[in-house]
Amino acid sequence: MITIDLNCDLGEGMKNDAMLMSHISSCNIACGGHYGDENSIALTLQLAVKHNVKAGAHPSFEDHENFGRVFRDISRSRFRESVTQQIHLFQETAQKVGVKMHHIKMHGALYHATANREDFSDWLVEFMLEFYPKTILYVAPHSILEEKCQLYKIPYWKEGFADRLYDNDVKLVSRTEPDALITNYQTAARQIEQMVKEQKVTSNKGIETNLSIDTICIHGDNLELTKDLEQVVAQLKSNHISIG
C-alpha cells in the first residue's frame, strides 16, 4: 500500500468542509485574501482537529470579488504586508484553537505568480527565509519557485492536482479553457493513481510527462467532484493507495 497526502482548500464558504475533512490528510485554510475571517478559520481548524488533519495557511491576492483568481500587479512591500497579515490571522486563530501551522500554500493567481514569476517567487522565498524558514511550502513542481526552494533549502512539498488538466509543459491548463477542471471522480482517481504509481501525468494533448509529487490537491469549490470524494478515496484504496 502506498500512502499519499491529499490536501484540500477549505474555509472558503462552500459548506462542505465537514464532509471533506474526513477524507483528506491536510487542508489549506483561506485566511482573508480571497475569503475568510477569524470565525471561518476557527471553525475549519476545529474540524481539522476533530479529523486529525494537518492545517496550513492559504494566502491570496486580496480579491473577494474574483476569489483570488485574477492576477494583481502589486509591489514587493504590498505583497509582504498582505501575506504577513493573512498568515498572522491564521496563526493567531490557530493558537486559540490549539493548532500548529503545518504548511503554507498560496492560493489561485498568487500561487501561479509565485510559482512562475521571478519577482513574486523572489519575494516569497525572501519572506519564507525571514519569517518561516522551517515551515513547509506547498509548491508546483517544475516551477521557478521549486528551483529556488532547492537553492535556499526551504522545506517544500511538490504538489499535484487531481482535478485540473495539465499541458505538455506540466503546467495547469487555464480555467478559461474548456474542460480544464476535472469533475468526474473516476477520472480524478486515475490521475492521482498515475501521479503516485508512475510519477507521471497525461497532458490535455495526450502526452505523458514526468511529475513527481508529495501531496495532491482537490479544490474544495469543485462541488461536482467533491460530492464524490468518498468514491475517489475508495477507488484509490482498491488500487492500493491510502491517504495519510
Describe this protein with a few key phrases:
about 240 residues, TIM Barrel, two-stranded antiparallel ribbon, 7-stranded parallel barrel, 10 strands, alpha/beta, 9 helices, single chain
Strand content: 15-25%
What does the average pLDDT come to?
A: 97
Describe the global form.
globular
Q: Mind telling me the CATH superfamily name? A: Glycoside hydrolase/deacetylase
If you compute it from the alpha carbons, what radius of gyration comes out, rounded to the nearest whole angstrom? Answer: 17 Å
Content-based structural category: alpha/beta
Provide the domain count. 1
The biggest sheet, with number of strands, parallel, antiparallel or mixed sense and barrel status, is:
7 strands, parallel, barrel
Strand order of the largest sheet: 1-2-3-4-5-6-9
CATH architecture: Alpha-Beta Barrel
Q: Would you count the extended β strands for me?
A: 10
Text of the CATH class: Alpha Beta
Low-confidence stretches: none
Query: Secondary-structure element sequence?
Result: EHEHEHEHHEHEHEEEHHE
How helix-rich are the residues, as a percent range? 40-55%
How many separate helices? Answer: 9
Cα separation of the termini: 11 Å
CATH names the topology as TIM Barrel
Pfam families: LamB_YcsF
Protein name: UPF0271 protein
Describe the structure.
The chain is of the alpha/beta class and 244 residues long. The protein has a single domain (2-243), classed as Alpha-Beta Barrel (TIM Barrel), CATH 3.20.20.370. Helices cover 41% and strands 18% of the residues. The protein is built from nine helices and ten strands. It has helices spanning 17-21, 38-50, 76-97, 108-116, 118-131, 144-152, 185-198, 223-226, 229-238, and strands at residues 2-10, 26-30, 54-58, 103-104, 136-139, 156-161, 200-202, 208-210, 215-219, 241-243. The strands form two sheets. Strands 1-2-3-4-5-6-9 form a seven-stranded parallel β-barrel, surrounded by four helices. Strand 1, helix 1 (17-21) and strand 2 form a beta-alpha-beta unit. Helix 4 (108-116) packs across helix 5. The longest helix is centred in the middle third of the chain and has 22 residues, at 76-97. It is globular. The model has no long low-confidence stretch (mean pLDDT 97).
